[in-house]
Amino acid sequence: MSAERLEATRRRVLDGARQAxxxxxxxxxxxxxxxxxxxxxRGAIFHHFPDKDALFLALAQxxxxxxxxxxxxxxxxxxxxxxxxxxxxxxxxxxxxxxxLRTDPDFRATWERHLRGIARATQARxxxxxxxxxxRGDIPIETLAAFLSLVYDGLVAHLATGMxxxxxxxxxxxxxxxxxxTSQTTSRST
Length: 190
What we know:
The chain contains 9 helices and no strands. By secondary structure, it is mostly helical. The termini are far apart.
């Protein structure tokens, strides 16, 4: 098999598994359901991933890397703005990550590295923005980052329920204003 075809099959496994995990949760996404969602045999699925846990972790890791890159480039508020474009599969995996963090100590131990990466990217972005006078200086960076993280997590949970967020842009503008230096009133940068 060519490298391109292997990668295409791997992508198909990930995309189908995302839907299965979002619809049925981690435990409910049986091998049979994974086969149905991907349109592939268990052999093809597990050729790319040694087990269901590795498959779920690959999805969650892919998402965490994407979020960290957006945060590093444009800030956590921009990552929140981009949530409106995420499908229920992506949001469902995020909820499943949250549930597994609470209930699965092994997953939590593995996942904390990704959480630290997102926290570092957020804090580094905030520090850079503070250095140029955009982010307020009266609150520790760690506190601002924790505030933004809590808002992000709440927004993911809300959107994953399928409920729209009324006035999302206004809400996110308010969040951004909360971390912005009071003399900064027009630029989006956190």
